[in-house]
From TrEMBL:
<protein>
    <submittedName>
        <fullName>Putative amino acid ABC transporter, permease protein</fullName>
    </submittedName>
</protein>
<dbReference type="InterPro" id="IPR000515">
    <property type="entry name" value="MetI-like"/>
</dbReference>
<comment type="similarity">
    <text>Belongs to the binding-protein-dependent transport system permease family.</text>
</comment>
<feature type="transmembrane region" description="Helical">
    <location>
        <begin position="144"/>
        <end position="165"/>
    </location>
</feature>
<dbReference type="GO" id="GO:0022857">
    <property type="term" value="F:transmembrane transporter activity"/>
</dbReference>
<dbReference type="GO" id="GO:0006865">
    <property type="term" value="P:amino acid transport"/>
</dbReference>
<feature type="transmembrane region" description="Helical">
    <location>
        <begin position="228"/>
        <end position="246"/>
    </location>
</feature>
<dbReference type="GO" id="GO:0043190">
    <property type="term" value="C:ATP-binding cassette (ABC) transporter complex"/>
</dbReference>
<keyword id="KW-0812">Transmembrane</keyword>
<keyword id="KW-1133">Transmembrane helix</keyword>
<dbReference type="InterPro" id="IPR010065">
    <property type="entry name" value="AA_ABC_transptr_permease_3TM"/>
</dbReference>
<keyword id="KW-0029">Amino-acid transport</keyword>
<feature type="transmembrane region" description="Helical">
    <location>
        <begin position="252"/>
        <end position="273"/>
    </location>
</feature>
<keyword id="KW-0472">Membrane</keyword>
<keyword id="KW-0813">Transport</keyword>
<dbReference type="InterPro" id="IPR043429">
    <property type="entry name" value="ArtM/GltK/GlnP/TcyL/YhdX-like"/>
</dbReference>
<keyword id="KW-1003">Cell membrane</keyword>
Amino acid sequence: MSVAPQTVAPPGVDVASARPRIRPLRWVAGVVLLVLLAQFAWFLVTNPRFEWPVVGRYLFDPNVLRGLGMSLLLTVIVMLLGSVFGVLLAAGRLSGFRPVAWACGFYVTVFRSIPPLLQLIFWFNLGYLLPRIPLGVPFGPTFVSWPTNSVISSLTAAVIGLTLHEAAYMAEIVRAGILAVDGGQRDAARAMGFTARQSFVKVVLPQAMRVIVPPAGSEFISLLKGTSLVSVIAMADLLYSVQVIYNRTYEVVPLLIVACAWYLVVVTALSLGQRRLERHFGKGQR
């Protein structure tokens, strides 16, 4: 067995008082970054076309805040539904029953392949394929039906389209987290007399959360930004709200900056929360 060579300080050299090496390339890179940052800040401050007074006037506009609230509400609803369906899909893919595993795998493949914007437009125009939504016996009589266009509103289409898309990604995140737990943990839990449910809840899930939380948090943030796609189906989210205003005032750039500012604030807050969750579930792993 080879032993790594040990570095011995020369005689008369005190390692504790040694100074770090000077790295000139790092200093050059730092100076370049500072110059670029200063130039960008100067561009923001001196360019009158940003119209910062207009940005300040509309930053807390009631219509903008309502759009922000709708974006947050849609994000929470879709993430909750997508997580529930994603867990079920992950359990199906890990199931030993082949037809269920194949069906769940087919679902994940299809809805991960279709862009979410295309799904939103499709569900919003569902009335073209299905003028009425029936409720009854399959291949039998229909008890009651509703006009599709009255059921599939902008909000309904957004929830359906984004949830189906999100469930496919959450299924893979949850499945990866469960597979990351060593199989010996389950065997040890069974040896201690735990039931299958107890071993999953008390042994497998806490360890899987360490793997699930980082990508799930990133997926939540991506979903928040992805809600801007619902503006194409005339849903009053944050982007649609600023679009309505600048279509009336023709102040396009300042209103887009307002939307960017709110997305930046919310995403930063969510990122801080994600880090706290990662530290909580990562205890004992560092």
